[in-house]
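Q: What would this chain look like folded?
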Amino acid sequence: QVQLVESGGGLVQAGESLRLSCTASGIHFTTRSMAWHRQRPEQQRELVALITIDGTTNYAPSVQGRSTISRDNVKNTVYLQINKLKPEDTAVYYCATLRGDVWGRGTQVTVSS
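A: My prediction, written as structure tokens:
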């Protein structure tokens, strides 16, 4: 079964950190570039960070400098660490293949001020 399962969301206070995880199954993970997206309330989904198969990363300006995307090809897992969280980081965070053919169901992150 092809699926991506996110975890690690929750309610945190502004300034704190969070690490999201996404575990893949049913895909050849090591050959897939991966991405994290988010959808803030009443806004369109946006790309937050991506990591290619060779480990190259890229970030949206809104999280640049306080986020790290990484992958563990043994565990078939991609991570997103966000530091210094802000209330505007409140969103549902989705893991997906960069191609966009496989998506997780999302994990809610809520940042209180």
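The first strand starts at residue 3 and ends at 7.
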